[in-house]
Amino acid sequence: MGARVAVLRERRGGETRAALTPETAKKLIAQGCSVVVESGAGLGSSLPDADYLGAGASIAPDPAAALDGADILLGVRAPHSDMLAGLKPGAVIVGMLNPYAERAAVQALAERGATAFAMEFVPRITRAQAMDVLSSQANLAGYRAVIEAAAAYGKGMPMMMTAAGTVAAAKVFVMGAGVAGLQAIATARRLGGVVTATDVRPAAKEQVESLGAKFVAVQDEEFRSAETSGGYAREMSPEYQAKQAALVAEHVTKQDIVITTALIPGRPAPRLLSTEHIASMRPGSVVVDMAVEQGGNVAGSRPDETVTTDGGVKLVGFTNLPARIAADATALYARNLLSFTGLLLKDGALTTDFDDEILKAALVTRGGQVVHERLA
C-alpha cells in the first residue's frame, strides 16, 4: 500500500510558501502515494485547491483531517505542537525545521514520536544537489533583496541620460558572496548598478569578478585559508576582522545600497556594519540586512521593519525574503522536497534506509529522541 503524504497550510506569520505544488503532488501520486492537502495550503503561492484536485490530490478541511493516517508530513516550517495531536507515532516529518533556533519545536516532534528530517542539514554533496533548499531559497532571497533595496532607494539604479541631465548609477556593495550574495550581485548588475562585493572565502573573488563586480577584501594569508571543507565561511580572527573593518569602513561611505548576507550555521550572524559605518553613509542610502533573523549583520536593523536612522539611512530587515516571491520559492522548494522524499519511498511505500548518507545527515528526531549530533 502506498504512503499517505500530507501537507498543512503554513500558519507562521508572513509564510506564504507551501511544501507541495500540483506538479510535485502529481509526481508523488505517480510513484504510488496518496496525497492530501489542507484546504488553502497553496493560496499564498497562487495555487488554489482546485489545482491540487486536478493533480489527483484530495483536500482536507482542517489539520486533523489532513493528518489522519498520514505516513509523511511535508512542511515549509516545523508544525506547531498544537497540530501534532493527530500525527501517528513514527510518522515522518520533512521541512525546514530551523533546528538551532527552534529547539523547542524539534523537542516537541521527538516527544510526539516523529521521525523528523531537517532540510537545512542535507549535505552539500553531488547526489543531494536537487535537495539543496538552502541554495534554492537563498538564490531567490538574493534577488529579492535587491528588488527591496531598489524599492526603498529614492533614486534610479541604472545610469540614465536624458535631455534634462544624467542620472548616476547606484553604487551597490554586497557583503558575502555565497549563493544569496552572488544572486544579489547579478541582479544589481542587471538593474544597472555599479557593484562591488566582499567575502572572506578566496574562491569568491573569481566568482564575484565573473559577474562583472569588483572584489573588495584584505587578501592576506588568513584570507587564503578562510573556507571550511563544507564550503562555508570560517569565522575570522579579531585581527583580520579589524583590518577588514577598516577597509569596509572606507568603502561603505561611498555606497548607495549595501546588502549583507553573512551567516554562520548554528551561530549568531556576524556583525558587519556598526552604527559608525551606518552614520558615515549618505542620507537616502539603503542597507538590506539578510541575516536579521539570526541577530543581524547590521547594528540597528530590526526583524521585519524598515528603520530610518537619524542620518537618513534606511535599514531594511525582512526575515523571510523567499516568501516575498512565493510562487517561485514554492516551486523550487517543492521540487527539493520531492527529490528528498524519493529517498524515503520504494514502490510508493515508506521504507526509510537510515544508513543512507543524506537521510543520516538530515535526521534530527527518531524514537522519541533528538538524535542529531549537532543538537545533542
Which features does this protein show?
2 domains, 8-stranded mixed β-sheet, single chain, 7-stranded mixed β-sheet, Rossmann fold, 11 helices, 19 strands, 376 residues, globular, 17% strand, alpha/beta
Could you describe the 3D structure shown?
This protein has 376 residues and is of the alpha/beta class. The protein has 2 domains: 4-132 and 326-369, Rossmann fold; 141-323, NAD(P)-binding Rossmann-like Domain (Rossmann fold). Helices cover 30% and strands 17% of the residues. The strands form 4 sheets. It has an 8-stranded mixed β-sheet with strand order 3-2-1-4-5-6-18-19, with helices on both faces. The two termini are 36 Å apart.
| Beta-strand content bin | 15-25%
Number of strands: 19
Poorly predicted runs: none
* Main sheet: strand order: 3-2-1-4-5-6-18-19
Say what the CATH topology of the largest domain is: Rossmann fold
**Radius of gyration computed on alpha carbons:** 22 Å
> CATH superfamily name of the largest domain?
NAD(P)-binding Rossmann-like Domain
Number of helices: 11
